[in-house]
Request: fold
Amino acid sequence: MNEDVRRFAGKRVVISGASKGIGRATAIRFACEGARVALVARTRQALEEVAATISEAGGEAFVAPADVTQEDQVEAAVLAAAKEWGGLDIVVSNAGIELPFEDTRVDQLDLAVWQRVINTNLTGQFLICKHGVRQLLKSGGGAVVMVGSPCGYRGFCFHEHAYTASKGAILSLMQVMAVDYIKDNIRVNACIPGFIDTPMNAHVMEDAGLLEHWCSSIPMRRPGTAEETAAVILFLASDEASYVMGSAYVVDGGQLAG
Ligand SMILES: NC(=O)c1ccc[n+]([C@@H]2O[C@H](COP(=O)([O-])OP(=O)(O)OC[C@H]3O[C@@H](n4cnc5c(N)ncnc54)[C@H](O)[C@@H]3O)[C@@H](O)[C@H]2O)c1
Reply:
């Protein structure tokens, strides 16, 4: 573990979607900076691999498997993490899915696909926040970081109408939570990753033409990394962001600005 930077010593974090991609990188970085991290995703084995990486490096992780669309599972996972450590200080609601081959324009969009995307990306973040915030209230405050997408601002994820709607709603939910919970000493913000090299984008990374197409719309002309995204999530969760609330921090190589 990096002993030089321990912004989160003594902090207790729950993070959804911690088995892969941005969530995995964020969990590892939190642990490197001294936090105890509860890892939430559906598959225990995948979470145990992340936990092993963290503990091999001297950090502390707790595996709390849950499907974020199932309230009983989310509640049990959050309660188990809070029991393990005597409370929670930080909630990162990150788990999400994108279904590029099924999600489409509304006139052709199956209700089942719409519901799967909304249930995971919106209801899933709501449920982690609901049960996580209950713990932050008991702790006397803390921070919530939600994970959105630039398509929550603009309609550039062509043909992914359910994903776009889910991410637009994350911004609205983040803002109203930020305003409502600041009196409880809870800061709520969102990280807005652009095009990031994670398993979610494997189909793009493996297709040179598609990759070139995506990068052509990014001023920095490359995908971001999960680690670059994690750095912003950690900033928003840290005391360095003490006057930051209700904000959406974009990590997109300039895509929205361009
Ligand atoms: N990668 C990108 O380019 C990009 C861009 C914008 C926003 N995002 C958002 O960032 C977040 C993380 O994306 P990623 O790229 O790391 O994706 P990923 O596919 O690499 O990882 C997603 C994580 O969410 C978990 N997950 C999915 N459904 C779940 C469920 N029902 N219950 C519990 N866990 C579940 C997965 O197991 C995995 O751990 C998502 O909300 C995504 O929408 C990603």
